[in-house]
């Protein structure tokens, strides 16, 4: 073979290699990168809920995630019993490990939608909240001097949107003072004032990053442990799956723990989510002790060196004692191995006051570190966000805006209020 032919072959090979590399780079760019904030702030589209950034994550571990004091004290014997798989409820240890799904599932791993597509789809999802809220308020405030009847109407609008009595009073008082102090006369001025007051009431200074990144302890990598809790039906399993997708899209590895063993279908549901993103799932048999499954998922997560273990916990609200036993035990048992970094409480926004009652009970049982408000797309009462944060003193970190796999968004007070008012 002549040297010219060899040179041509080498040149063709180099060109092909460059084309492959360019293809891979372009493909990766199309995937969402949730840690990067867009450099240019997009103007919110009328009526849409657009967030300026992706869901942000932060490191777990003792340095950044010191949780408040635990409500429930660990009982060593009880913890041991759960870990060693007591005969009546906990399946034998090997059973759980045997049921770990294969690392490489046969089904193809899904591409996760790029950010642009996600924001596009979330537009207008809050339209029902908007019609009940922003338009009415702006109509009233834009009129200038308000008589007592008009102020009562403002109050009623806020109450109807589920903001709760305390937040409503606070907001009305501030509006009354500022309206006079600033001499508000036009609807634009009213809009600016209303936006400011509502955003402030949502405490934009709260840290809303999800503690789902690993930390190191004495040179050993520990995954972040996220417990996802809430009453069955609120969207707990769905949220766990959606969060796993966000992490995977961000280049992270996750282990899912199907500790909601109350309903076999819930375990299957989580296994499907895991399969779709190529993650492992650890599960127990129906009726298995949730604490044992949670323990095994974290153990497996540490062994395999994943970045985060997301545990879908049981959320039966039969009695407070029952819940306390179950959830308190899950947390204590997991903490035999590593700290629980995040306890997310999933609340269904459509349940209004009922959701708040649930929140109170859960908060008494376990230290909630973040709230996920689901089904905000299906309610005219977006105001529940204000109330639940106020009640628990814990930030709403994520919101569910649909049944689709990528319909989970970070909660941003400014973007949320814009969606209500525009
Ligand atoms: N519209 C809407 N539906 C949602 C949202 N989040 C979850 N859902 C739906 O709510 C239903 C219940 O969700 P699950 O995730 O199964 O609820 P769960 O709390 O895990 O309940 P169990 O499976 O019984 O443990 C499902 O049909 C979800 O698709 C949301 O943000 N918007």
TrEMBL record:
Residues 52-61 have a biased composition (Polar residues). It is found in: Cell membrane; Cytoplasm. GTP binds at residues 230-237, 312-316, 374-377. The keyword Nucleotide-binding applies. GO terms for biological process: SRP-dependent cotranslational protein targeting to membrane. It is a peripheral membrane protein. It catalyses: GTP + H2O = GDP + phosphate + H(+). Its EC number is 3.6.5.4. Part of the signal recognition particle protein translocation system, which is composed of SRP and FtsY. Belongs to the GTP-binding SRP family. FtsY subfamily. NCBIfam families: ftsY. This is Signal recognition particle receptor FtsY.
């Amino acid at each position: 073979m002549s040297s010219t032919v060899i040179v041509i072959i080498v040149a063709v090979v180099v060109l092909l290699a460059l084309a492959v590399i360019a293809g891979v780079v372009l493909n990766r760019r199309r995937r969402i990168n949730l840690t990067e904030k867009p450099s240019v702030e997009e103007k919110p589209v009328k009526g849409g809920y657009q967030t300026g950034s992706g869901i942000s994550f932060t490191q777990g571990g003792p340095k950044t995630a010191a949780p408040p004091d635990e409500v429930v004290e660990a009982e060593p014997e009880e913890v041991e019993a759960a870990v060693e798989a007591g005969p009546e409820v906990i399946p034998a240890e090997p059973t759980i490990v045997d049921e770990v799904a294969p690392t490489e599932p046969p089904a193809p791993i899904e591409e996760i939608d790029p950010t642009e597509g996600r924001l596009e789809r979330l537009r207008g999802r809050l339209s029902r909240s908007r019609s009940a809220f922003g338009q009415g308020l702006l109509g009233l405030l834009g009129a200038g001097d308000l008589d007592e009847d008009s102020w009562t109407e403002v109050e009623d609008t806020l109450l109807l949107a589920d903001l709760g009595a305390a937040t409503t009073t606070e907001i009305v008082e501030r509006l009354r003072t500022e309206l006079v102090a600033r001499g508000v006369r036009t609807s634009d001025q009213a809009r600016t004032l209303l936006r400011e007051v509502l955003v402030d009431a949502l405490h934009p200074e709260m840290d809303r990053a999800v503690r789902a990144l690993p930390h190191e302890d004495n040179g050993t990598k520990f995954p972040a442990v996220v417990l996802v809790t809430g009453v069955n039906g609120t969207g707990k399993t769905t949220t766990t799956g959606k969060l796993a997708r966000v992490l995977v899209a961000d280049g992270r590895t996750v282990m899912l723990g199907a500790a909601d063993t109350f309903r076999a279908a819930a375990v299957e549901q989580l296994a499907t989510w895991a399969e779709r993103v190529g993650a492992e799932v650890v599960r127990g048999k129906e009726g298995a002790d949730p604490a044992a499954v949670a323990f095994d998922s974290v153990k497996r997560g540490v062994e395999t060196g994943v970045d985060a273990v997301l545990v879908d916990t049981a959320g039966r609200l039969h009695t407070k004692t029952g819940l306390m036993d179950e959830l308190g035990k899950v947390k204590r048992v997991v903490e035999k191995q590593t700290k629980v970094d995040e306890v997310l409480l999933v609340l269904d926004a459509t349940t209004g006051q009922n959701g708040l009652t649930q929140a109170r009970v859960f908060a008494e049982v376990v230290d909630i570190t973040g709230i996920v408000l689901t089904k905000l797309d299906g309610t005219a009462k977006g105001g529940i966000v204000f109330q639940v944060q106020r009640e628990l003193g814990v930030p709403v970190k994520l919101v569910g805006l649909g049944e689709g796999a990528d319909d989970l968004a970070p909660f941003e007070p400014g973007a949320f209020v814009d969606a209500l008012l525009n």
